[in-house]
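Lab notebook, bench 4. Continuing the backlog of folding jobs that were queued last week. Each job is logged with the same field layout so the records can be merged later without manual cleanup. Today's entry covers GTP cyclohydrolase-2, a 219-residue chain. Filled in by technician R.K.

JOB TYPE: sequence-to-structure
TARGET: GTP cyclohydrolase-2
LENGTH: 219
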Amino acid sequence: MSEATATTEAAVRRQVTVPLRFPDGYATTAQVMTFDGLADGREHLLLGLGDWRRALTKSAAGGRAPLVRPHSECLTGDVFGSQRCDCGPQLREAAERITEQGGFLLYLRQEGRGIGLYAKLDAYALQDDGLDTYQANVALGRGEDERDYTVAAQMLLAVGADRIRLLSNNPDKSLQLDALGIEVTQRIPTGVHVSAANVRYLRSKASHTSHTIELPLAE
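JOB STATUS: finished
OUTPUT FIELD FOLLOWS
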């Protein structure tokens, strides 16, 4: 985690309405927000989906917190539909579930668990030689997971979302956000988006970092 903390204030710099349509035809409308003052100086986005204003009002009164997913950028999965991960289906699922309940989708520019696009593809080559996703990152001289959720906390605090229900299988997201001043009232797992190409990857996440993923038994 970086030395910056979520107490460093960020502010919404612009909010624009963006209609969204996914490849399967699902459509929703997002209030896309950009920010000044983010700790890493990068261009992260927060998408307000559904009746997020009402969700914030209910949360401030002690009711159910808004549903939030911090989603790490995955060009191969989100854009090109790569089957080597579950990122694209998780993004699509999150957009619909958050729209239904009101909340925020954070699109974080930290490709490949924070190591970048080229390094992620280098790690894929090592995985083809038998390493798992974490071993491959380490073999490249990087951390198993270099993602930092400081900017996620900053964006949430900037829109008044200091209490959230977290849509994620990853317990590290909850731990980091809690340490950064975001109260996670509930962690809700995403669906299991398994394919022949990603089952080994998903098993590594479940066994190595305790992701909440229920997978079929290995044959």
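OBSERVATION: The chain has nine helices and seven strands.
SIGNED: R.K.
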